[in-house]
Amino acid sequence: MYILLLLFWIILNGKITTEILVFGVVLSAAIFWFMCKYLEYSPRYELCVAKNTLWIIVYFFVLIIEIFKAAIAVYKRVYSRKIEIQPQMVFFDVDIESEFLRFVLANSITLTPGTITVDVDDNHFCVHALDYTLAEGVENSVFIKLLKKMEENCCG
Question: Using CB atoms within 10 A as the burial measure, which of 9, 18, 57, 124 is most buried?
Fold first, then answer.
């Protein structure tokens, strides 16, 4: 982050002189110190993101695929006269310790058509599904497996 702050400073100035570079080094260090002290930022977070870069890319593509699959399933249920829609609430627990990763999971469920995360209380999730078939397996979804791998990669 320190390097990014310094590069941002240099880009904003448009040229590199000794004075601009020295002032940028000092200013970037001050901002980085402020982030670590008051914004609970940690260089450990950068290491975690770097370790999980591949998993983050995989997660993004899996999310896109799941969104399309769910969109097709919702489309079939909404426009078919033969299928009766049966909404369902699903309650399940997840053993993901990271609050941020639980946030990502809740939003991934909500982004997937036909499901919405109604409540998250620590590790306890409440999800509403448009149809019971859309709710099947939500507690063991591919999202949870990938997020657990990311968490293990950071803590392990």
Answer: 9
